Amino acid sequence: MDAFDADVLIYAASADHRFGPLIRALFPATPGRTAGVGSVLLLPEVLAKPMRTGAAGELTALVGLLSRLNLRPVDAVTAEVATTVAVAYGLRAADATHLATAVVAGADRFVTNNRRGFSAAIAEIDVVYPEMLDEQFSDPFLPVRRSGWGGGGGPGRRWPTRSR
Fold it and tell me: Which residue of 38, 60, 63, 96 could cross-link 91, Cys pair, CB 3.0 to 4.6 Å?
């Protein structure tokens, strides 16, 4: 399962962004199928600007993408994990919450273009940048890097998770 950061959803909603098609390809063509997971913080993060500026087309595209995600609330467990990853990696609160949501939900990878916030040093989940998707789609035999413990909190760490 994929988890998404706000930036890549904005790219996917744009007809002109070079990474848009790569991100949109992660959303199943079957109507009603969930594409992945994200924090409810995605709502204000991606919808506020197009609502403020009256960009109806962008707003419609973003709402369509968000409706295909399992948007998870920021509960106590997610907040605790967010605090831990914020301290460990120097993340801002919103970025830490997006990452924690992915980890607690048991996502396999976190799709983002924010290299400054989400470096390869992050051990809790595979961080995937859009151009890595391009490599994956261009070579179907290219293995997807798996950490072996995505969603489990990394070596030596066990995040508490809610029962599903």
Answer: 96
